[in-house]
């Protein structure tokens, strides 16, 4: 009985300390409600301010077919971290378009992590410490071992799929 009680207390403690996903807070920098910390794609695409641009932009974006063919050849078990702001204009444009690219590649959702930041480009509990986030959105591509291969910051140099391809082409 003591053993079961101990296990139950450990599980409860883990749940209490577990980070709230799709957390909403009031952002003083922009004086509005925003998402903060770890998010799910569902949480992002249903957040009212983000959704109003997400749906039409996602539907309208057509990734370059030739670039996508090349990308599909290079995609292995990479991981992508998306750091964005629900308040940010560049995030509102580029996150839907990046998801369109990932979907066209059949990129595994489990290999994508999404982190929302506040108006000062900060998240809680140190979850973006060490990532050197200066602008959002920032799309960071990692190899299967977690080594950063490259990133797209704020907006692509060419296209999202073109920049993604350039990152993967540099892979050893």
UniProtKB/TrEMBL annotation:
- One Pfam match: Thioredoxin_9
UniProt keywords (A-Z) are: Signal
Q: Which residues form the Thioredoxin domain?
A: 51-172
User: Which interval of the chain is the signal sequence?
Assistant: 1-18
Coiled-coil residue windows? none
The record's section on Gene3D superfamilies has: Glutaredoxin
CDD domains according to UniProt: TRX_family
Q: What is this protein called?
A: Thioredoxin
Source organism (scientific name): Pedobacter jejuensis
